[in-house]
Design goal:
Blueprint (H helix, E strand, L loop, with lengths): L6 E5 L7 H14 L2 E8 L4 H10 L3 H29 L1 H7 L4 E7 L2 H12 L3 E5 L5 H4 L3 H9 L4 E4 L4
Parallel strand pairs: 1-2, 1-4, 2-3, 4-5
Length: about 160
């Protein structure tokens, strides 16, 4: 059965609970037979912060190591969150089977990174959080609104507490 959805991009933040977004994306991928890609976008450091680091850390190798560590830590946290999600939801893990879940951590302005990644990977749908405590209060956070404006595919916005 074909649904026209071959690739789902699931965008998660690492500050809060990403289980509702992961659950929605996994369930959609399971229902459609789509590939699942999980992405975390690390916000770029501001120019002021970068300039301060460059002034205070003269050794370029040390500075590059620090910048690399930032992304590595995000990758490790994403792996921990995914492992914990599967451990909390063994029924979803069993239903999803041994299908691969692609994981990526990219740096940049999150809404732009997410939209470009969706286009580059040929994603047919984006699943992400509303990023507001009260769904009715503001509908979506700044990143989610930015993705909705830029996306060329449907964006499923998962309300908090789902």
């Amino acid at each position: 059965m074909t649904h026209g959805i071959r690739r789902i991009l699931c965008c998660v933040g690492l500050r809060g609970d990403c289980d509702p977004v992961l659950a929605q994306a996994v369930d959609l991928a399971q229902a459609t037979g789509a590939e699942l890609h999980v992405l975390h976008a690390v916000k770029s450091l501001s120019d002021d912060v970068l300039n301060t680091l460059k002034i205070n850390i003269q050794d370029r190798q040390t500075l590059e190591t620090l910048m690399t560590q930032r992304l590595d830590q995000a990758r490790e946290e994403l792996e921990r969150r995914l492992a914990a999600f599967w451990a909390r939801h063994p029924e979803r893990r069993a239903a999803f089977g041994e299908r691969e879940v692609t994981r990526s951590v990219l740096e940049g302005y999150p809404a732009s990174v997410i939209s470009h990644y969706a286009t580059r990977t040929g994603s047919d749908m984006i699943v992400m959080a509303a990023n507001k405590r009260s769904f009715a209060a503001a509908y979506a956070g700044k990143v989610t609104k930015g993705v909705i404006k830029r996306a060329k595919v449907p964006v499923v916005v998962v309300p908090p507490g789902t």
